[in-house]
Amino acid sequence: MKLPKVFTYYLLFLITTFIALYLIKEFDISYPLTITNTTKSSELAVVGEGKVEAVPDLATVNAGIVVINAASVEVAQKAINETNSKIIDSLKNLGIKKEDIQTSNYSINPNYAYENGKNRLDGYNGNASVTVTVRKIDQVTNVIDELTKAGANQIYGSSFSIEKPEKYRELARNKAIENAKEQAQNLADNLGIKLGKVVNIVEASPGTPYPITMKVAAEGRGGGGGTEIEPGSQTITSTVTLYFEKR
């Protein structure tokens, strides 16, 4: 009986494999390990990180105007408006543009006192928020002092940010790419492979630098020292993944 060709080839393959495995085990024959990828070319993926320290160049100062127990709505409104006008004039004298001064959350509410089981109208409370954008960091101290002198009786603090963080993100990205290249070359040298060109690059979504919020120390206002403010610095980080061809 003649065996089918397919069965014959399969039988020869099994016999050859058995003999090869026997020889390897018997004579301790070593053989190279080959990794075959399903893609046309194998790739090496390396993650790089870059960091840049940036000093904030933009400040925001938040203050408030509070009026308590005004005799009428008109009196409360007049007090807020007069103080707000003084604030704007004082800040303009410092070189702050009018468009960088914003008044918001303007409100006037009746105030009630509880007496003999009844609520009695006891004047009106008014308040308004003032937000100042300071484009020269060294002016923050003067801005806060001028706000208090002009009648702002609430200083909520200041925050510092970077007006154009894109250039710092680019610097951090370039550092991350160089870091990834260095790591890839080190890996290639250790593995005994050669790197080809970069076939793909993926950057993790860069986070927006958060403003640094600082409370204002009250000591010194009204004296000779003034308010001391330090903006500090922010760290901008970039993370990239480079995919290299392996030759």
CATH architecture of the largest domain: 2-Layer Sandwich
Sketch the major β-sheet.
Answer: 5 strands, antiparallel
Poorly predicted ranges: 20-40, 217-224
Into how many domains do the coordinates divide?
Answer: 3
Order of helical and strand elements:
HEEHEEHEHEEE
- Overall shape: elongated
Measured distance between first and last alpha carbons: 51 Å
Q: What structural category arises from helix and sheet content? A: alpha+beta
User: Could you say what the CATH topology of the largest domain is called?
Assistant: Alpha-Beta Plaits
Give the topology.
Blueprint: H1 5-27, E1 43-54, E2 58-70, H2 73-93, E3 101-115, E4 118-134, H3 140-150, E5 154-161, H4 166-191, E6 195-203, E7 212-214, E8 234-246
Antiparallel strand pairs: 1-8, 2-4, 2-5, 3-4, 5-7, 6-8
Helix pairs in contact: 2-3
Descriptive overview:
- The protein has 247 residues and is α+β, with helices and mostly antiparallel strands.
- The protein folds into three domains: 1-31; 37-55 and 163-214 and 231-247, Protein of unknown function (DUF541), domain 1 (Translation Initiation Factor IF3, 2-Layer Sandwich); 58-161, Protein of unknown function (DUF541), domain 2 (Alpha-Beta Plaits, 2-Layer Sandwich).
- The chain is built from four helices and eight strands.
- The chain has helices at residues 5-27, 73-93, 140-150, 166-191; strands spanning 43-54, 58-70, 101-115, 118-134, 154-161, 195-203, 212-214, 234-246.
- A five-stranded antiparallel sheet has the order 3-4-2-5-7, covered by helices on one side. Strands 1-8-6 form a three-stranded antiparallel sheet.
- Helix 2 packs antiparallel against helix 3 (140-150).
- It is elongated.
- Mean pLDDT is 82; it is low at 20-40 and 217-224.
